[in-house]
Amino acid sequence: MKMDAYYLFYITAIEQNFSKAAKRLFVTQPNISQSIAQLEDRLQTKLFQRHSKGVSLTNEGQLLFQQLEPAFQLIQQAETNLNERRYLKQGSVAIGASDSTCKHLLLPIVQSFQRQFPEIQLKLQHGSTPQLIEKLDQGTIDLALVHMPINEQTYTIHSVFTIHSTFVVGERYQSLAREPQSIADLAHYPILSFSQKSHARHYLNELFAKQDLLVTPEVEVGAMDVLLECARIGMGVAFVTKEFVQQELDEHALYEVSLDEPLNPRQIGIVTRNQAQLSHAANRFLEKLNQSQ
Q: Can you tell me the distance from the alpha carbon of 202 to that of 245, in angstroms, rounded to the nearest whole number?
C-alpha cells in the first residue's frame, strides 16, 4: 500500500481537476496523472471519468473516496491538534506545590499565564516535598516546586526561590519580638509547627538539635492559614516562612521574633524528572516560572 498514491487520489477527488490537485500538492500535472493511472492499474478499477472540464468519480472511485475520507480527516485533525498545542491553543500543565508555596509563589504566575494563554488548562496539585517527588516519579505532574535539597541525579533543578524561616507571635507573646531571642529562650514557650513529615518541621528539629534541645510542638498543623491563626490568637510561637507571612507582619497581625543568630536561608526548587519530555505548554509555563526569579 502506497499512502502517497491514495492521498493524491483523495485530493484529486476533492478538486475534481488534475491541474488544481497538482497546484494544491505542489507537484506537476503529469505526476498526478501517472499516480492515478498506477493506482487504477493496481486496483484493476477505473476511479475517474475524464471530461473536458476535469474529472469525476466513478461508482468505484466514489466508494474508495468514502472509505478514505474519514482516515485523512483524522490525520488532518491530528496535525491540527499538534499545531494548536505547539502554539499553545490547547493543552494542559500539571504543577505540584505545597499549599503555602502555591498561594504565595505559584498563583501569581498562574494568573499571568492564564491571561496570556487562556486555552491552556492548568492543573494544580498540593502536597509535601516527598509526596510531590512521588507524583513526579509517577508522571501525574509535569513539574513541582519542592524544598531543597533533592537528588540531583534523578531530577533536573531549573531554578530556585530563596526563602527565609522565622518565628512569629501574636499579641499575647509580643514581648518576645522586642529584643533578639535565642533558640534556648524559645524552648520555654509553646512552639507551633507544621506536621512531622514536612520539610519545615525537619528544619525546625535541626535548629533545636544544634542546641542539644528537643522540640515538641504544642500544635502541629498541615496548613499555613491554620498555623498563622493559632499564633494570632496566642497559642504560642509559630515557625514559618517569612515571605509567606509578610502581609500579616506589615499589618501587625503578627510580630516577628528576631534571633540572636540569624537562620540560614532555604531554597525551593522548580524541578522536573530527568529526561522528561515536557509538552509545549509545560515548557512555556516553566519558562515563565524561571523568569519570575
A: 20
Residue 84 pLDDT: 60
Distance CA 133, CA 145 (A): 10
Residues of the chain with pLDDT under 70: 1, 80-81, 83-85, 87, 293
Residue 93's identity, in one-letter code, is V
Q: pLDDT value at position 175? A: 96
Pick from 227, 280, 287, 289: nearest CA to 89: 280
The residues, any chain, with a CB within 8 Å of residue 130's CB and separated by 6 or more, are 197
Q: For position 87, what pLDDT does the model report?
A: 67
Of the candidates 224, 11, 222, 230, the one whose C-alpha atom is nearest the C-alpha of residue 131 is 222
pLDDT at 275: 77
C-alpha–C-alpha distance, residues 125 and 85, integer Å: 22
C-alpha to C-alpha distance for 38 and 44, rounded to whole angstroms: 10
What are the E-state strand segments in 92-189? 92-97, 121-126, 143-147, 155-163, 165-169
Cell of 92: 494542559
What domains lie within the chain, and their CATH numbers? Answer: 3-86 (1.10.10.10), 92-162+268-291 (3.40.190.10), 165-264 (3.40.190.10)
Per-residue confidence (pLDDT) for residue 293, from 0 to 100: 67
For 12, the grid coordinates are: 484529486
